[in-house]
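Technical annex, item 7. During the second reporting period the consortium partners agreed on a shared format for inverse folding records so that results from different sites could be compared directly. Each record opens with the tokenized structure and is followed by the designed sequence. A conforming record, contributed by the partner at site C, is shown below for reference.
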């Protein structure tokens, strides 16, 4: 049995950290595992990633529709040439740091491109290669952006030219309005509500090791062909549609 797992979340949610921790644990357990990134991994994906990073001047910023098709092109190449072939191996596990749901959340809900058009583009790009399990690291945009700024400030002055380009490219997300990031978050939560069997909602404010333990328990259950039902809440998981208590409390205090 092969398994395809994706990690989703807003900026600074910690999804990349959890993807790497899961990859290491699966590897230690003897599973053939591959971690891919969007956009990236393939030559085309890496080329498009570099192009997107260069949006540091106003004249370099591409239109929302062009952004949508660039991400779709990278995903089509990734699905066809990397993910599908690897999943054909017995017992293989593919982990994806972002996948099709990022397009729905960012370009659909964030950029407000028609969701029916997003669905068509995603279907063409993935050709039916859909995750069996998706972890959503849920975090308020305020907290997520604060994490990123703290990290970039810490690394500034010690970075390579490539890392500097990464930092400059990330500014395009930082400079989006909070309203944009809130739409992205709400979009993710709506996706989780629509497919509760595939999605697992995690409170990204929890300690890294605690989250990693929950992720491992869910993945291990799937590998044993004992996936938990969509209505059952495993220890450490939040019910779909429920925000972290701290976030709700903040809203109450503001309101």
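Designed sequence (site C submission):
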């Amino acid at each position: 049995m092969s398994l395809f797992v994706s990690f989703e979340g807003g900026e600074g949610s910690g999804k990349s950290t959890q993807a790497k921790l899961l990859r290491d644990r699966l590897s230690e357990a003897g599973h053939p595992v591959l971690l891919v990134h969007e956009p990236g991994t393939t030559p085309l994906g890496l080329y498009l990633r570099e192009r997107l990073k260069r949006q540091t001047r106003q004249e370099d910023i591409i239109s929302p529709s062009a952004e949508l098709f660039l991400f779709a092109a990278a995903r089509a190449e990734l699905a066809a040439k990397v993910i599908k072939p690897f999943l054909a191996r017995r017992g293989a596990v593919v982990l994806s740091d972002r996948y099709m749901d990022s397009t729905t959340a960012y370009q659909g809900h964030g950029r407000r491109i028609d969701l029916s058009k997003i669905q068509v583009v995603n279907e063409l790009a993935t050709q039916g290669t859909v995750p069996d399990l998706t972890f959503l690291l849920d975090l308020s945009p305020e907290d997520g952006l604060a994490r990123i700024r703290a990290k970039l400030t810490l690394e500034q002055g010690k970075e390579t030219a490539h890392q500097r380009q990464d930092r400059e490219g990330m500014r395009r997300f930082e400079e989006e309005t909070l309203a944009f990031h809130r739409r992205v978050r709400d979009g993710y939560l709506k996706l989780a509500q629509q497919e509760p069997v595939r999605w697992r909602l995690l409170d990204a404010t929890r300690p890294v090791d605690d989250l990693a333990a929950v992720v491992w328990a869910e993945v291990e259950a799937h590998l044993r062909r004992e996936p938990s039902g969509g209505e059952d809440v495993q220890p450490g998981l939040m019910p779909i549609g429920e925000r972290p208590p701290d976030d709700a409390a903040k809203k109450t205090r503001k309101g």
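The longest helix spans residues 64-87. The chain has a mean pLDDT of 85. All partners now use this format for quarterly exchanges.
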